[in-house]
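Subject: sequence -> structure tokens, single chain

Hey, anyone have a minute? Need the predicted structure for the following. Not urgent.
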Amino acid sequence: MWFGDCFNHLALSLLSLLSLCFFLALLTRLRKRRRRKADEIVVGFFHPYCNAGGGGERVLWCAINAIQNKYPNVQCVVYTGDTDATGDEILSKAQSTFNIKVQRFVNFQHLRTRFLVEAKLYPLLTLLGQSVGSVVLGLEAAFRYPPDIYIDTMGYAFTIPIFKWLCGCETACYVHYPTISSDMLSVVECRNNSFNNRKIIARSRLLTKFKLFYYKLFAYCYGVAGRQSNVVMVNSSWTQGHVDQLWSMSGKTWKIYPPCDVMGSMSLPLDRPVTTGDEKLIISIAQFRPEKDHALQIRSFHRFLSNLNPTEKSNFRLILAGGCRNHGDEARVNELRQLTEELQLGGQIEIQTNISFSKLKELLAAAHVGMHTMKNEHFGIGVVEFQAAGVIVLAHNSGGPEMDIVQKIDGKRSGYLADDEESYAEALQKIFMESTHEERVKMQKEARKSCNRFSEEGFQEHFQQAVISLFQ
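Reply:
Had a minute. Here:
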């Protein structure tokens, strides 16, 4: 009797849910028909943090330009949660930060439920919480302005089924970084303490088993959602490997390197003063997110300086420049400043947040070395910009920098790779204290030669090729 009642309640709930989904789908499609002009195609870009000023935002604006340049009858819609900025202000920031001017009108739909994808809301089961939050955010976007073609450019794969099933859209996505990866599973399985695996979990066999089950189940659902995309684009070999594995999309993904400001940086001179007595500048360009591991840069710099005499030490300076998205990023900046003071490097390390495009160019023109410390960075736009500007690269020996960017050209080194405090310090020692000026200039030339693969023009051409089937 009890079992029968439970079954009836479950069946009734399921029927109600299916009826609601059918009603929502019908409603969104009616709204879309009512709104559409005769020959207009609406392309919706889902990018809740479009005003953040990072590499992902450069992809967004270049993708919009690519669509507008090829299709004159298209209206581009950006679904954003940046309710504190108008559309004009967002476009103005894109131009000042990236020197990118969007060609035609963009319709900004400001979403009110973006707070649901903030990690701080979910101290436990963060991936699940943010993914469920993205579904709600996606539903708001679909009801506000249902598009004909939907493109997720920020990695919210669980929104793709919403637009495919409810709105009847052609769907595409540009994946910068998989929400979950085999590397994350490996960290948990090996019980390593990391930014995505707390010490309390790493120490417990039971909690580790539970988290592994949770991750594997999440990875399965992530794959189901991702496979609803008609066109899948990825930004690097590293990302492609994980997406092919998780989404079972082997041979069906487009590897499209993100657009980098290559041509604008190549005009900067290669020959920079590195003789005794001149300031030697090391820079880092990255948003102040936890996975960027800025603390490793500071500790590596400190270790490098510890091997120099007082006169030599005074010639070196490190500048960390990057965007702050929210209070969490601002708190990390404060922690980095405290670490700098603890290591007594206050006079030699400077942190600059939310810098303009012109200020970025100034740093690239003055820097000798560009440091990057994110493990398994999906690509590394900042690394490419270093190479194009003639800044010698010192990047993490993993992910995009290792597989796609810092490669030997005709057997010649185009940069340095490291993976811990000691190897970073050793690389800095080789660059500044053990190599000649002529050797450094040769490396700069080889690195600059390899950068044409990552131009904005190349991105637009390949992006247009990838999405052409969505318009047919």
